[in-house]
Amino acid sequence: MITARTVCTALLGLSLVACSGLARPEATGVTLNPASVTWSETFDTLDSARWIRSSWGGFWQQPGLTGTFDPALASVRGGHLLLTLNVQTCAAGLCARAAEVQSAQTFGFGRYTYRFRAASTSASPSKSGKVLSGNVSGAFSYVDNSATEIDLEIEGNRPRTLNAAVWNTLSSKDAGALPTGVNFGQTFQTLTYEWRPDRITYFLNGVKVWETTKDVPQQPAHIMLNVWPTNSAGWGGLATTGTVYMLVDSVQFEAF
To answer: In this structure, are residues 36 and 6 in contact, taking their beta carbons and an 8 Å threshold?
Structure first.
């Protein structure tokens, strides 16, 4: 998420795409992709040398739903990254404050593993909460207006579906909506994608669930984690006022 992106409804409902010309700031930092490199994060702290908290106007802007990414809503608690989304009624209709972090470094071909619980009303890793409509939890790679974008996304209105998408610029995309037997908002799950020059393969708890050889991006990208609001009968669901939390236990990158 980083240079201009526009919000619209995307094919198969997979959506971090574009439309209003809002600009996402680009993190600066070196590319990390030598052979035999492992980079991991267990969120004992939110190290500012590793992670940048977003503070820009969110890409979800539409009539009746406005707001911004608030850096105060990305924090660490008990060894977990806590990303908070709050939606309230306001003069404009609904106003949202959301949370997003991006890695300072960029990463290339390799294995990306995320362990997280999608948005729910519980901020505690040991207690499950209620899953609400009107949000998307994301873990993905992103750079330069989707020159590279590799998505793992969970919708609040479809918490048992894993949305996978691969972008090589905004005009080239492949995507899959994958029903699963787990509720991503109720329990922590381990999700992985393996990014090679000719294909990207997705895994849920070590089991292969999807693969594409189409539109495979080549440019190293930032690791991104976020939760943000929706107000659509399709993608993400109609908005629900109140507060939900996405919890991330760990992130790991292993270079090929």
So the answer is: no
Q: Specify the DSSP element, H or E, that contains 38.
A: strand 38-41
CA–CA separation, 26 and 104 (whole Å): 9
CA proximity to 194, closest of 117, 255, 138: 255
Separation CA 124–CA 50 (nearest Å) = 24
Q: Answer for the pair 162, 204: CB distance below 8 angstroms, yes or no.
A: yes
pTM: 0.88
**CA dihedral (105, 223, 175, 37) positive or negative:** positive
* CA dist., res. 204 & res. 53, Å (int): 27
> Is 156 in contact with 235 (CB distance < 8 Å)?
no
Residue 108 φ then ψ, to 5°: -110, -140
73 in helix, strand or coil?
Answer: helix
- What are the beta bridge partners of residue 102? 52, 224
**Residue 187, SS3 per DSSP:** coil
Distance (Å, whole) CA 31 – CA 235: 33
d(CA 147, CA 144): 5
Residue type, 25: P
Mean pLDDT of each 10-residue bin along the chain, 256 residues long: 36 36 52 65 97 95 96 97 98 97 98 98 97 98 97 98 97 97 97 98 98 98 98 96 98 96
Print burial letters for 158-193: b (CB count within 10 Å at least 16), e (below 16).
bbbbbbbbbbbebeebbbbbeebeebbbbebbebbb
Q: How far apart are CA 73 and CA 75, in angstroms?
A: 6
Of 85, 165, 164, 79, give the one whose Cα is nearest residue 118: 85
pLDDT at 26: 60
